[in-house]
Amino acid sequence: MHFHIIMTERCNSQCRYCYEKSMKEFDNGLDKKFEFDYSAPEKSEIKIEELKKFIDKDPNPKIIFYGGEPLCNYKKIIEIMNNINAEFFIQTNGKLLHTFPKQYINRISKMLISIDGDKERTDFNRGEGTYDIVLKNIKLIKENGFKGEIVARMTISFTDNFTDLKTQIKHLFSIGFDSVHWQLDAGFFKYDYNKETFSEFVKNYNAEISKLINYWISKMKYGNFLKIYTFIGIMQDILNNTKTKLRCGSGYKNYTITTNGTLTCCPIMNCIKDFYVGNINESDPNNLKQIDV
What is the mean pLDDT of residues 35-45? Predict the structure, then answer.
C-alpha cells in the first residue's frame, strides 16, 4: 500500500496554479458540495509509535512525504525514517533539498520534484529563480550520492500560456530527469469552467499529446524507452486489456494520512470529511474502506 503522509500544510512557494488561485477565489463553491474539516493542525502531530503500529501491519508499505512542502517539516521526516521500516518517496518543490541531511536523502527511492519545463515556464509558474535553485539542488544531491529515481512533476494549466508539451518534456530529459509525469490544473475553481478558454485549451492540449505520443513511439522504435508515466499506465492497460479504477490508486491502494492521523483517500482531499476512511489508531491498512472518487 502507498501512504501519503501530510507533513505540513505550509509551503515556501507561491505558485500560480496553487497559491495564487487560492488567494483570488475564496468563494469557489466547494464548501457547498463537501463537508470540510478545519480541526487538523498545520504541521503533522501524529505520534510515531501510533504511526509505526499502523504501518507495521502492512507487509510492503510505501511512504510518500507530502505537503504543502514536506521539507518545511524535515525533522518529522527524519523521526519517521528513524523508526519505521518502509520504502520512502517524497514529493517536493526541490527548494529545500540542500537542508535535508544526505544520509536521509540517499534512503529515498523516488523523488518527485515540481518543475514545469524550461527556465522560462517554470519561473513563470513558480517564481523567479525557482528553476536554477531546483537544478542546483539536484546536482548537489547527486554529488552526495543520491541514486534514486528523480521524476519531473509538471503541472499543466490553461491559464499559463501553455505551449509545446513535447519540447518541454524533451528539455526535462535533457537536463537529467529520469522520468516525467504531469497533472492537469483544472476543475477546482470557478474560472476553470470558462467554456471558451477551456475549449481552446483542450484543443491545444490534445494536439500536443498527439505530437508527444508520436515522439515517444519513435524513440521506442530505436530502443530508447522514455519513462513518461502519464502514458505508461494507460499503454499497459491497453496492451493487456485490463480495467482499472483511478490510475493514481486513490481510494483502493493509495491512501493519505493527515496531520492528525485521519485517513483519507487522496492527498488533495485531506481535509474533506466525505472522503475519510478511518484513522491510524483504529484502522487496519489491509482492510481500509474503498472509495470511488
Answer: 89
Class of residue 67 by CB neighbours under 10 A (exposed 0-12, middle 13-18, buried 19+): buried
Domain hosting 161: range is 2-279
The answer to whether 10 and 71 are in contact (CB under 8 A) is: no
Distance of CA 205 to the CA centre of its chain: 21
Residue 292 in any domain: the answer is no
Element (H, E) at 234: helix 229-240
Domain count, the chain: 1
Which residues, including other chains, have CB under 8 Å from residue 92's CB and lie 6 or more apart?
A: 65, 67, 69, 70, 71, 111, 112, 113, 114
Q: Is residue 286 part of a domain?
A: no
Q: How many residues does the chain have?
A: 293
**128 in a structural domain:** yes
- The pLDDT tens digits of the residues spanning 130-168 come to 999 999 999 999 999 999 999 999 988 766 556 689 999
pTM, two decimals, is: 0.92
pLDDT of residue 194: 64
Neighbours of 38 (CB within 10 A): 5
Asked if residue 149 lies in contact with residue 178, where contact means CB atoms within 8 angstroms, the answer is yes
Cell numbers of 240, please?
A: 493487456
Which CATH number do you get for residue 206? 3.20.20.70
Interior/surface letters 14-37, b for 16+ CB within 10 angstroms, e for the rest: ebbbbeebeeeeeebeeeeeeeeb
Which candidate, 188, 177, 225, 230, places its Cα nearest to that of 205? Answer: 230
- The answer to whether residue 287 is domain-embedded is no
Question: Among 207, 209, 150, which Cα is nearest to 177's?
Answer: 150
Give per-residue pLDDT as tens, 191-243. 555 666 677 778 888 889 999 999 999 999 999 999 999 999 889 889 999 88
Rounded Cα–Cα distance for residues 243 and 212 (Å): 24
CB 267 within 8 A of CB 4: yes
